[in-house]
Amino acid sequence: MVGTGAIGVSWAAHFLNHGLDVVASDPAPGAEDRLRDGVAEIGADPARLTFTADAGQAAAAADLVQENAPERAEVKHALFAVLDEAARPDVVLASSSSGMLPTEIARAATRHPERVLVGHPFHPPHLVPLVEVVPGERSSEAATDAAMAFYASVGKTPIRLRRELPGHIANRLQAALWREAYSLVDRGVASVADIDTAISQGPGLRWAVLGPFANQHLSGGPGGIAHVLEHLGPPTEAWWRDLGHPVMTPELERKIIDGVDEELAGVDPAALARYRDTVVRAVLAAKKEFDT
After folding, report:
1. Can you list the positions of beta strands (E) in 60-193?
2. Separation between Cα atoms, residue 170 and residue 102, nearest integer Å
């Protein structure tokens, strides 16, 4: 585990809770104490957790490396040069990058670029099952298959991208929603709170159970998605043409910030996060019950 910020702490707790030994590395002062406190707060036993400030030392001891450094190319390149030098040749080097291309990340891995790929979790990794496995131009099938098998073995739901794109899949879908949400605020169509309500009390409830295509299929009744496309295809195209193209101006940023402040006035952020995580756990438990 290389990099022990919020994502690294969550990953570490998840791996520990699935019986793995974790060797963590982070050069920041106080990183070990924050990591141990965070892991314990999530509910993982830190007894099988060791720490070193030396990323190469951590990689040399690893059967898989999960990297969680800042989203800056120069940081990734410097780090992957070290990891590629230290790790055994068969060890997958997976980046948690939320948007960078694995081909770009692998440029620094001159010895074994074939074992570099993206293993992008969805925050928080100890709770949300999704992992996007993204091979780059030089990633091998063996490394990709190993990553898919590893994530599945620790209770994740991995999906493999057939082509690398900035932002992968889930973040691009989120970005599409955010673009229109920001546009609606910018145009004065709705408040920040109303948009949050529109999703959390509307389609978001269905999206927590089934994805967009399966939900659209069900909305078509006996005719399924074929019926939906026949009758709502042209109107949907018209809506697409009318979607906004907001620009992140200081004025729009201020509207968003003020809207969130108004929506969450008096709400404790830590309590809100606990509420979110508790409900997500309940949804996951219900899905598991009905899926079996």
Report:
1. 64-67, 92-95, 116-121, 130-135, 157-160
2. 16
Tokens of 222: 């006996």
Identity (one letter) of the amino acid at 154? Answer: V
pTM above 0.70?
yes
Does residue 150 share a domain with residue 14? yes
Residues above pLDDT 70, as percent of the chain: 100
Q: Are the beta carbons of 133 and 117 closer than 8 angstroms?
A: yes
One domain for residues 134 and 190:
no
Question: What is the mean predicted confidence (pLDDT) over 93-119?
Answer: 97
Name which of 198, 195, 202 is nearest 255 in CA terms: 195
Supply the CATH number for residue 133's domain. Answer: 3.40.50.720
> What would the pLDDT profile of 30-48 be if each residue is shown by its tens digit?
999 999 999 999 999 999 9
Residue found by looking up tokens 């992968």 in the block: 168
Nearest-angstrom CA–CA distance, 275 and 10: 17
The closest of 92, 121, 98 to 10, measured between CA atoms, is 121
Q: Report the distance separating Cα 100 and Cα 200, nearest Å.
A: 29
Phi, psi (deg, nearest 5) at residue 127 = -120, -45
